Predict the 3D structure of the following.
Amino acid sequence: MLQAVITGLLLGGLYALIGVGLSLIFGIVKITNIAHGDLMIVATFFIMVILNHLIGNIYIALLITIVVMAIIGFLIQKFLINKVIDQGAETAMLVMFGLSIAIKNALTLIFGAGNNALPSPVKGTNFIKTDLVSISGQYAVNFIVAVVLIVGLSILMDKTPLGRSIRAASSDTMAAELMGINTKTMYVWAMAITMAATAVAGMLVGQTYSFFPYTGTQFLIIAFGVVVIGGMGSIFGTLVGGAILGLAQMIAAYLLGTAYQTLAGYIILLILLTVRPQGLLSKRMRK
Amino acid sequence: MADKNMLKQKDAMPKVRWISLAVAVVVLVSLPFWGGDYIVNIFTLILMYMAIGEMWNLLGGYAGLVSLGSQAFIGLGGYSLAIVSQVLKLPFLLGFLLAAIVSVIFALLISFPIFNMKDVYFTIGTWLVAEALCVFFQTWGFVNYNVGFNITVARTLGATAMYFIAFGVAVIALLAVVLILRSKFGLGLMAMRDNEAASEIRGVKLYRSKLICFLISAAITGLAGAALYLNLSYIKPTVGFSIDWTVSMVFIAVIGGMGTIEGPIIGAIVFVILRQLLYNFSGFSMLILGVIAVVMILVAPKGIMGLINKKSGFDLFGVKRKVKISDFQTNEDN
């Protein structure tokens, strides 16, 4: 049981990192990025390609991927979402849905439907190993990287001029524009930052699990879970959401068997959505 | 009562409409007698996809309920058929009855939690329900876990019989949508779609209207699910509850034109023909469909039907209400 709790909490860190991008985009651009999971898997595949064909070092590969994903985010926001955002959130969501289908099938076409894995320097090692609990090195790394990155994102949003402009653009579009902020440009920046963070999540996911072109959906649902529990748009909420979801899954797996791990996650989400449709931690929106 | 006159349906092009409807019916009913097997099969697919496209459109285009969980009802329909014909060994037509009943009951059950969720949360919620259902069927012994069923009765059925089943489902779907939209209830729906708050103040019962649409859509999607799996003759959870079903429904509605009746008809024709053309490049077909859908939303957000309607004002089923200016004037004179 103790093992399940600790693994669940550590897993929650990774979940939070997967969800934070979705949460940021919902909070700032006010759209639900249904292609979030697929874009993350694109990053994972990109790292794999660089490792196989260009450079053997995974950290350099990650750096390149972060830049590439930021550019992809930039392009998506500038040439797709910004074009339809005035027609409402649902239209933008349908556009991302189309993008998600296109990505999945393009990846299948290039890489086939089989399983892939990324190498990891800490694979198979243990961070802590006692008779009572053991923590795998990968889970510990995931957790630490996730927490550092989420704290970093939160500082970026709260303390820097860019972050302030982005928040201004999202909290009162009209006022921000009157103050000389181009809100749509801010959305583009937000998406680029988000995609850069998502690239890191993509690497950790690739190191922790095997992945294939259709895995994106699975992680999208996890990201939804994290964000729904933590509250859409709240950066620190994703940490709490991730921890709760991770705990729920691990405890369900411990009590009922691993077959019910996924189902338990869905059911907890549905219950939470029913009881607190606006998220567990989110404050009431002030108008 | 000037009020009633104002809302009377005025036909823009009554003759064109009736002639085209009559031609369509004659062609479709006689099709198996002059068309080859290949043509009949294509039309069977078009009719079934049209039905599910219409049902998604009823939710997404009219009731303001953007669902990504409609595959739940396709899967339930398919499994109902499989259980009736394979496990219970009863006539397979009873499977259609069960499909509709099970779908409505399931829709009613999930409506309690799902209707608490607003907008995006509703969309996510419906998807989660479908995913949970898929996982549940994988762990359920009664439906053979991951393995699923071979629906053997399908092999004894000829192409013509299958065609008329699909035709029946399509007619039910179309009739349901046309009748709903031409009724007062449908007027309320469209008011709700255009401005929820205003329509509620004017007396449209939001919750009840949405629920009725949700249940009707569930029942007919379930029926279509049974028909689709009668045609496919094999069902398993990961395919029956696959998001791909909803992908096609969204595509059909978006391409044809969301919030129009004719849209899904055009959308289904485009969808099935495109898929058939791209059959030899599997993998490419969905990629291209995804790209087309995105481009369509960017270029023509109202779909093909939106373009036609804007150019000529033509609409096949006359659900649009046109207000006569004179009605307004007499109204004010009184």
Q: What stands out?
A: Residues 27-243 of chain B form one domain.
